[in-house]
Write a structure and sequence with these properties.
alpha+beta; Polyamine Oxidase, Chain A, domain 2; globular; five-stranded antiparallel beta sheet; five-stranded parallel beta sheet; FAD/NAD(P)-binding domain; 3 domains; about 30% helix
Length: about 475
């Protein structure tokens, strides 16, 4: 299927999930799209890499049933979410005897599923359950909205949450969702995540979705096929080094040539977008440069192919002071039949863990698994690999001003998981951002050509919009 002869000639710079979403959305509307990616493969911070002949994700991910835009785009590019994702009820399950808890929602209608999980939960005392019920009831009454932001730690103290509930539920949820420690994380954003998980109005929206495919195959590769089937093209291993105005459009200096486009979506990391924007929108470029970041480390451990955990994934009690770094452990063999005996352990907000050598961190995690799961053989994997994304997400702090998708420049939009949203830096945020950027470009394309060079009636370029 080819694209219509008429339509905007658009460059999408950056082939991560935001860029792929923007490219798919634009191609579906008839634009002629060129997707430019500096790496050889698409996916950005959610892609596959080859290690020891095995495709490993550069980070283990969990999606939510509430990720409506992500699920819609998967279907649009020909991926069946029911086949590509393992759907589990919302849960926080620690290995038996490890000192944690067992909290899993029954498949009842919302909000009864949450009360069912609370009644059945093991490892929580009566005061812990009352505190959780009090918190969720108050948050629901508030509409999961906080008008004056504060840290998650302050929010939990305000609602008298117990130390054990904080340790076993709130802190790991905060770190997993926002990749920012509770003492620095935004309560507004945390509540938005809880709204769509523990507080979801539809039970299915709170489900946890574990990818069965590697992250490249789950969306970016399918997006590339969709784009090419709709008359677009993908330029891999090509870097955009400069951006300039060209008549009523834009000119991109690429690795080996210069190309002109009617419009451009910048879906590169914030620092790279800032460099391209510096001459055109210095205030926006400065805002992008000012973002701080948090790392995520994923430790892969390969065991005998017969090894299998009792559950697809577990929560783990972390304690860095005691050399316990792992927060969640996944049995990859239960997700992908081609990866038997492979475990993935995630360390979010991994600033301290990243200071350790790969071998030291992997050995500590293997020991933690052997102790918590009461399986001595886990202390001796056949091989290990730690993959650390040093700038995995922005630091999601209170009242953080995040740039909008609209740069204020004609025919130029931003896309990325750092853009304005009530969500943290998730795959859903990236996809939503790409879709929103595509909408802005489509609206720009409806203008008469003689008006496209003007962003406002007086012809001046407006300062970029900023929201939080």
């Amino acid at each position: 299927m080819s694209a219509p002869e008429h339509g905007l000639n658009v460059a999408v710079v950056g082939g991560g999930w935001a860029g792929c979403a923007a490219a798919v959305e634009l191609a579906a509307s008839g634009a002629r799209v060129t997707l430019v990616e500096s790496a050889r493969s698409l996916g950005g911070r959610a892609r596959a890499v080859e290690v020891n002949g095995t495709l490993l994700d550069n980070g283990q991910h969990i999606l939510l049933g509430a990720y409506r835009e992500t699920l819609r785009q998967l279907r649009q590019v020909g991926i069946d979410p029911d086949a590509a994702l393992l759907r589990l009820p919302v849960q926080m399950r620690y290995p038996e005897g490890s000192g944690g808890m067992d909290f899993v929602a029954p498949r009842w209608p919302a909000p009864l599923h949450l009360f069912g999980a609370l009644l059945r939960a093991k490892g929580l005392a009566r005061e812990d359950k009352l505190a959780l019920a009090r918190f969720t009831s108050a948050a629901r009454w508030m509409g999961w909205v906080l008008y004056h932001d504060c840290t998650v730690e302050e929010l939990l103290a305000r609602f008298d949450q117990t130390p054990r509930l904080n340790r076993l539920l709130w802190h790991p949820l905060c770190i997993a969702a926002l990749n920012t420690p509770p003492e620095r994380a935004s309560s507004k954003v945390f509540l938005a995540v809880l709204r769509d998980s523990l507080g979801a109005s539809r039970r299915a929206a709170s489900d946890m979705l574990l990818p069965r495919l590697d992250m490249g195959a789950l969306f970016p590769q399918a997006a590339a096929r969709y784009l090419e089937a709709h008359g677009g093209r993908v330029l891999g291993g090509v870097k955009a080094t400069a951006l300039g105005r060209a008549g009523d459009g834009w000119q991109l200096a690429l690795s080996e040539n210069v190309a002109q486009f009617d419009a451009v979506v910048l879906a590169t990391p914030a620092t790279q977008s800032a460099a391209l924007l510096a001459a055109h929108a210095p205030a926006l470029a400065e805002q992008l440069t000012a973002l701080d970041y948090e790392p995520i480390a994923t430790c892969y451990l390969q065991y005998e192919q017969t090894l299998r955990l009792d559950l697809p994934f577990y929560a783990l009690l972390d304690d860095p002071a005691q050399g316990r770094w792992g927060q969640f452990a996944f049995d990859r063999g239960q997700l992908d039949a081609a990866q038997p005996g492979l475990l993935a352990v995630v360390v979010s907000a991994a600033g301290d863990a990243a200071q350790l050598g790969q071998d030291a961190l992997a050995a500590a995690i293997a020991g933690q698994l052997a102790q918590d799961l009461r399986r001595p053989e886990l202390a001796a994997p056949r091989w290990t690999r730690v993959i650390t994304e040093k700038r995995a997400t922005f630091s999601c702090t209170p009242d953080l001003a995040r740039p909008g998708n609209d740069t204020g420049l004609p025919g130029l939009a931003l896309a990325g998981d750092y853009t304005a949203s009530d969500y943290p830096a998730t795959l859903e945020t990236a996809v939503r951002s790409g879709v929103e950027a595509a909408k802005l470009i489509r609206a720009y394309g409806t203008l008469p050509r003689e008006k496209r060079s003007l962003s406002h009636a007086d012809g001046a370029v407006a300062p970029p919009s900023v929201s939080s």
